[in-house]
């Protein structure tokens, strides 16, 4: 998981199906109580796990099998994190003298799969007109970028290589013959990045390598 802290607490980005760890608070002595609250994306709040003095850790409902409250620093581990775990987690630690410590963690859950590229091409005298469509089977908050086989990025707004459909489609009008026949689609979100390449030599058969 990837994490960062800010003025309002911590943001942790988790990968769907993997383990994620939310930071905790290290108390000076054993506290009277430790409670992790979970608020889902529609605003419903429940107790995920708690630990009362002289009592074992308890996790409830859907958290019972996948959540682990670590008693060393009261961090929270979530196994096989799912979309339903996306939300706000509030940790409240109350000392035996009544002092209260709070920590807020926002958990976001993402996944992106290997992209695929579809090709539509038409040939005319001296030109090969190509539309490349990039897609992913699974993913959230995905950003699409295009590049050439030589590593040159295709900039949005380039009139000779227009990009449409929020970056998913690249339109090319290539002079024949052309040397640069390989194009890459890269998909990324806060936790992952994948790239797929395609060689247009087979779609514009008069190209020369």
Give the overall shape, derived from the CA principal axes: rod-shaped
Give the tally of structural domains.
2
Quote the CATH topology of the largest domain. Immunoglobulin-like
Q: Give helix and strand order, one letter per element, not per position.
A: EEEEEEEEEEEEEEEEEE
Report strand %.
over 45%
> How many DSSP E strands?
18
- Counting DSSP H or I runs of 4 or more residues, the number of helices is 0
Largest sheet data: 7 strands, mixed
Describe this structure in words.
With 209 residues, the chain is an all-beta fold. The strands form 4 sheets. Strands 1-2-10-9-4-5-6 form a 7-stranded mixed beta sheet, with no helix packed on it. A 4-stranded antiparallel beta sheet has the order 11-12-16-15, with no helix packed on it. It has a 4-stranded antiparallel beta sheet with strand order 14-13-17-18, with no helix packed on it. A hairpin with a 4-residue loop joins strand 15 (163-164) and strand 16 (169-175). It has no helices and 18 strands. Helices cover 0% and strands 52% of the residues. The radius of gyration is 25 Å and the shape is rod-shaped. The protein folds into 2 domains: 10-110, Immunoglobulin-like (Sandwich); 115-199, Immunoglobulin-like (Sandwich), CATH 2.60.40.10. InterPro entries: CD2/SLAM_rcpt, Ig-like_dom, Ig-like_dom_sf, Ig-like_fold. Residues 115-201 form the Ig-like domain. It is found in: Membrane.
